[in-house]
Write a structure and sequence with these properties.
The chain has 165 residues and is an alpha+beta fold. The chain is built from four helices and five strands. A five-stranded antiparallel sheet has the order 3-2-1-4-5, with no helix packed on it. A hairpin with a 4-residue loop joins strand 2 (115-120) and strand 3.
């Protein structure tokens, strides 16, 4: 679980820095490029250079603002479940679920990719993303998970012998 929390922490740090940068550019500075008055007050630029700078500003500033706003909105969509799960992350009390893995897990890179699978205990099903390189369909596992992020860690598991014979 510490690895997942570290990944989420790094993402949130980057997201907060990006958010602060967007707020500064859009609200405080009101643009990426200098204003027309700032260009006109510079004595080291000729009138032709100022006009070129203003044309560049005219064509690039609005698309840049749209792009950074779209990236911010996408980041918020990713960050929202993490904020919802903050109470579990801060308290260290993660929900647990035990059951049998219902889906075949495609194993690729064991260390860097979380596998997505379904666990069922007969009454309830849980779809979760976790590092499951030692387990496959039919194995009984217990996971600690973050319910809104739908990710977790297998804390206990029993392999069915027929999977590995």
């Amino acid at each position: 679980m510490q690895r997942i929390i570290a990944e989420f922490g790094i993402f949130m740090l980057v997201f907060v820095l990006w958010f602060a940068g967007v707020v500064y550019i859009v609200i405080i500075r009101k643009g990426i490029f200098p204003s027309k008055q700032e260009y006109l007050s510079r004595e080291d630029l000729s009138k032709e250079q100022i006009n070129t700078c203003l044309k560049i500003k005219k064509y690039f500033e609005i698309p840049f603002m749209i792009i950074i706003t779209v990236i911010l909105i996408l980041g918020m969509a990713i960050a929202f479940p993490i904020f919802q799960d903050a109470k579990y992350i801060l308290s260290g009390n993660y929900p647990q679920f035990s059951g049998e893995i219902q889906t075949t897990i495609n194993k690729t890179d064991k260390r860097t990719r979380r596998d997505r699978f379904i666990i069922s205990n007969g009454e309830t099903q849980l779809e979760i993303s976790a590092y499951a390189h030692e387990y496959d369909k039919g194995d009984y596992v217990t996971v600690q998970y973050l319910p809104h992020c739908e990710t977790g860690t297998i804390i206990y598991g029993e392999n069915k012998k027929e999977n590995y014979e």
